[in-house]
Amino acid sequence: MLNGLLDDWQPQGKTETFCVEELAATMWRKRRFFQAENAEVTEKMEYTDPDFRMKQHVEAWEGSRAAIGSGGLLKYLNNPLAIREAIETLKLLRLTITNCEFNQDSRLLKKLYGEDQDGGIPYGLRLVCEVYATIAKVSKANNAESGDSELKEIIFAFIDG
Prior knowledge:
Distance between the termini: 67 Å
Shape: rod-shaped
Helix content: over 70%
């Protein structure tokens, strides 16, 4: 690099030669800096993806473990692992409803939707299921036609949606 700069600039005297040598040293340092910076960025990128995935695993696990008190699994819509667990929970809910009667205050629904701080029922499938569970319970208590199969079909439409 120095020889090329000396040929290009053809310095006259010691001062100009010194300036060309300083230019060569500065250019060399700048080139080394860019190589080091590129290596640093590449190294960070190698660790970023696994760190991000680990964070998602931890978030999904903790979200699942504390779902009821933390607003439910559906709070983590940007985490594919939490979404996968929510889908599995919905499948389990569908199977439970298929094989059993409606169960008011279902733990699976609480896992998905959590609980409101004021003790209310969050909007969404949980509210619909709780309303239909109440309808089925009242119909059964009054020895009336419960319409259980129609209620299940409506719930299944919500779950499948």
